[in-house]
Structures are given as C-alpha cells and as structure tokens.
Amino acid sequence: MIDKTAIVSLKAQIGNNVTIGPFSIIYDNVEIGDNTEIASYCEIGVPSELSNQKKLRIGENSIIRSHSVFYESSTFGNKLITGHRVTVREHTNAGENLQIGTLTDIQGDCNIGNFVRLHSNVHIGKMSQISDFVWIYPYCVLTNDPHPPSETLKGVCINRFAVIATMSVILPGVVIGEGALIGAHSMVNKNAEANMIYSGNPATKIGPTSRIKLSDGSRKAAYPWINHFMRGYPKEVLNQWKLI
C-alpha cells in the first residue's frame, strides 16, 4: 500500500506487498524487496554525485521507520530494521538482519556483516569494516581521520562477536579482535586482542573476557556471549554457533 501523499518514482522497482507511508519520497534509483515497510517522511535513494549512479537495494521483509534517509548506491540484505531518523550515506554494503538504532549515522563506504546490532546515536565513519554478530551500543563513534581535517582515511575494523559498550570512541585504523569487549566510555587507540577486555582513556587491556561472570547468580561466564544470549537469532545461526 502506498499512501496518497507519498512520492514514488515510476523508475523505482517496488516489490510485492510493500507499504510506503505518508509524505515519504522514493527516488528513481531504488529497488525495494517484497514485504518491506517504509514509514512516514522517509527519503529513499537520495541522488548523489558520490554514488556512481548505483542503485539503492533494500532486501525483503525490511522495516524503515520514520524520517530516515538512505542515499543511492548502497545494498542491504533481507530484514533490515531501523529506528527513527537514521541516515545512511553512499556505498554502504550490509548483510542480513542489520538493526540500526534511532539517530544512528552511517557515513558510507562501509562494509557491515550479518546480524549486526547498532544501537541509538551511533556514528559509523567512512571506511569502517564491521563483521558478523557485532554489537555497538549507544553514543559510540568509529572514527577514520588520523589527523583531522585531512584526506587520509583509515577505517576501523571490528571482528565478529565483538562488543563496543556505550560512549566509546574507536580511533582511526584500530582493529578490534574477535569477541573483544570494549568497556563503556573507553577511547581505543591501539588494536584490541581477541576475547580480551579493554577499558579506559586511553583503553588498556584488563584481561580475558572469560573472567566476567553473569550477574544472574549462576556465576557462569558472561563471554563468549553466544553461550547464553540467543534472543532474536534463528535456529540455523544458533546451530552454527554450536560448532564454534
């Protein structure tokens, strides 16, 4: 269903059972998968000189909430879900089941894996590389300019299962290892080893993530988190985790 106030280009490719809310604009260079919901006041496929005229592709069964803006030339797998007022710039390529929280800003030229969770007010700088099953909590910033302002960009790389706690800043070119935990309010200026805790400003290595215990009274290890947190993940993913 397309609201009568929405503006939808005849050149856009709209799948079956797509809902487009009031006052949203769907531009020419767009492909929207089946069963997707576009809420009110969204701009989808905004033209840009940086896009090389590539299409914006949004996978099936996606939900894009109100006031969100997506530029052309990005690709998103199935089941993309956003909060409100999300901005995504050019050449962002993401896998399936990406969740983008309210007021999060993805600056483009990024690669994002499957089942990535970006909470509200997260800033993802250009050239960022984010692997599968990464969690980034509110008010975190992934930077990219080692001596701003400059034309030199070095994107942050975050490996799978890593967790970046709230209000942390990751400096340009830093690599966060698989399963690493970055504590809240940390400033990370050096690579973080896999399955280690880093905290502070500047962040220092505290020790293995396995030392943290669940606060539910069980005294079981909180990390790797995939051993106890399963909400929102399909059976095929959970079965994959059992083999790790």
Index terms:
244 residues; mainly beta; UDP N-Acetylglucosamine Acyltransferase, domain 1; 10-stranded parallel β-sheet; 9-stranded parallel β-sheet; 3% helix; globular
Describe this structure in words.
With 244 residues, this protein is mainly beta. It has two domains: 1-103, Hexapeptide repeat proteins (UDP N-Acetylglucosamine Acyltransferase, domain 1, 3 Solenoid), CATH 2.160.10; 146-244, Hexapeptide repeat proteins (UDP N-Acetylglucosamine Acyltransferase, domain 1). The chain contains one helix and 30 strands. It has a ten-stranded parallel β-sheet with strand order 1-4-7-10-13-16-19-22-25-28, with no helix packed on it. Strand 29 (196-200) and strand 30 (203-208) form a beta hairpin. The chain is globular and about 55 Å long.
Distance between the termini: 43 Å
Strand count, sense and barrel status of the largest sheet are: 10 strands, parallel
Portion in strands = 25-35%
Q: What is the structural class?
A: mainly beta
What name goes with the CATH superfamily of the largest domain? Hexapeptide repeat proteins
Number of helices: 1
In CATH, the topology of the largest domain is named UDP N-Acetylglucosamine Acyltransferase, domain 1
